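Hello, quick one for you while I still have it in my head. My current little project is about how a certain protein chain folds up. You're getting the sequence in one-letter code plus the fold written as tokens. Would you mind checking whether the tokens look sensible for this chain? Here's the protein in full, and shout if anything looks odd to you:
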Amino acid sequence: MNITTILFDLDGTLLPMDQEAFTTGYFKFLAKKLAPYGYEPKSLVDAIWAGTAAMVKNDGSCTNEQAFWKKFAAIYGEEKCQSDQGLFEDFYANEFNAARDICGFNPASVETVHKLKECGYRVALATNPIFPHMATENRIRWAGLVPEDFEIYTTYEASTFCKPNPAYYLEVARTLGVKPEECLMVGNDATEDMAAREVGMDVFLLTDCLINAKNRDLNAYPRGDFAALNAYIDALQ
């Protein structure tokens, strides 16, 4: 079946970054924002990780947003959770943008996305949906793109699974109205992104900011930089 749709990961793929440095810096900014409201930094970070784990374990019975805040409320209480949720939204709209300086920039990301659209491919952003839409839209802009460059971009408000659950990729395909076999998933994480192959998607491992936490055999995947990706896609036609 011909490839009609290209799915891109964001962090470490279209947006170059050291994942650990980004997470550390982002949490530092969030802790500073929330400290005046009674959030001890380490406890806050632990709660964020607990909420993230709840999203990753989501079985599709609720949105990732609901899974996160249910866990967060279990730690801090329902009343505080409801009263302070706006603080998080304000953070992602404002202070979160300081984390842009922790990330890199690769013009090849912009060039590739625009080229693929000009060639008639459908392009979507399959970023792990553990962030609210505001945080995802901001990170898209950090990469030199705009949300409108993508047919869809996955966020925690509208997703019910996370990577590396293969069900996440089926959900993306269903939202786009395409068969998994029509999709090429491009990402930098050998575990989270290459899981798309399990549902029948083609895959390409972008190695500029490679993550291979489980030491997988990378020979199993087409891989390389953006030049190699473009050559791979050209060969599909």
Residues 9 and 187 are 5 Å apart (CA to CA).
